[in-house]
Each structure stands twice: as structure tokens, then as C-alpha cells.
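Q: what does this look like with zinc ion bound?
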Amino acid sequence: MKADIHNHTCHFSPDASETIDELITSAISEGISVVGVTEHYEYDNPDPDDDITTFDINDYCRTFSEWEKKCPEDLTLLMGIEFGYQTHTAAVIDETAQSAPFDLVILSNHLFRGRDVYYAADGCYDLPKKQRHNEYISKMAEMCEKVTNFDIAAHFDYINRYNPDVNCRLLYEDCPAAFDRFFEALISREKCLEINTRSIYKARAKGCPDVMPDSEIIRRYLAMGGKLISLGSDSHTPDTLGICFDETYEYLRSLGVRELCYYKDRSPVTFSI
Ligand SMILES: [Zn+2]
Ligand SMILES: [Zn+2]
């Protein structure tokens, strides 16, 4: 079974070009039976180049119920949201997350020192690798400690997605204390770690020698008692839904992962891989 629970449409995410009809068509052709729509919601986005902000939650709920009517019976469409975190927006995220009947709530850290990583090439990539990774993962940990109302921490490796250095791979050994704090925050709150296959796809497109997340990161999460893992292709275009899923399943199995999960009505549903 395949569940791809992190995706965007052009109807509510300004950086996406796929329509809901294209997303549904791709899901059918790729044999993906559970699809999450997780539109961007970035309150008080400080990046002057970024047009991702917020949207009307009631409008989203109304639109989503129309989308559900288009869905074939054997495809489960999940209503989700992806909040962009900043320290001062934790309370707004908690409040907004409980204001609608979401199936899943994803938390993300898209910023590094106030700029979206997408635009931050000059600033953050000049820093020593370990310093950059420690700062980013520490912020992921803070995010999971400060926000209460969420289910999944997304793309922990986002910091390198647009890094032109092909040897920039994020390793557990770069910042073990920050990773342990991040995992402790997730595990003690029964939250889920996402493996984002868009990161794998982007790393391969750049020519990185190792495209999979560092095995020590996954091993440490499992060793600390982490059980909840989800997969998302973070698709913004119809051609990347479910991208790299087969090889990621195989990779995770080789590390001892036997179950993945998706969220329905804010509760995890596990399935074997
Ligand atoms: Zn994201
Ligand atoms: Zn996303």
C-alpha cells in the first residue's frame, strides 16, 4: 500500500502548479490509495521574496468537501495543512490547527535566519556545515517543543534542498545532541517523523553521491523508541506524486522499519511495508 500524505495544489499553495484534478489522476495512475493535501500556511512570513502566506481556512474546508466528491471510492483524500514555523507563531499555529477538522497537521521549518532556505543560498551555505546543521535541527527541536497541535515534523533535511554543494549531506554525526533533542520532542509527544522523498529526488537531480537520508539518523530515531514514520513526496507538480517511494520503502526496510503511517481525523493509521 502507498500513502503519500504531503502534497500541494495551485488552489491554495502559490508555489504549486498542479490542480486537484491532476493530483487525483496521478494518484490513480501511480497506484497510491491515500493522498494528503497539505497546503502551505505561513503566518507572518518574513522573507520579502516569498509569496507564500496564509489562506482562508473556511474557504479551504468548503473547497475540500467539493474535492472529495470528485474522488473515486478507493482513493482516500486527506485534508491537511503545512504550517511554516517561527518561534513567535507557535500560538497562532496551535489556534489555527484546531479551527478546522483537519485529518493531518504538518509542521515545517522553511527558514534559516529569517530567509526561506530556497532564497538563502548566499547566507546560510557559507557557514560551516556542522554549524548550519546544528542550528537548523535545533530549530526543528524547538518547533516540536513549542507547538502542541500537530502530527508530523516535515523534511528535517530541507536545509540542504537547494544547497549547490553536492557533498552537503546532513549526517547524524554533524549534530547528535540536536538530533536527540528533536527526536525526544517527537517521541515523548507521540508525533511522527516524515521522510520527504522530494529531498531524495532533488538530491539526485543535483548529482549528490548519497541521496537517501543518513541511515544513522533513522537508526537513532528507532533506537530512541520512534515508531511513527510517514512518507511524503511534497509534490507541487503532477509528475512527482509518489516519487522515489519504491526505493525509499526498500531502504527503510533494510534499516528495520516495518510500518509507516498516515493520519485520518488526526489519528495515526499504521500499515506494513
Ligand atoms: Zn515544506
Ligand atoms: Zn510541502
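The two ends are 7 Å apart (CA to CA). Residues 82, 108, 110, 154-155 surround zinc ion (ligand 1) (CB under 6 Å).
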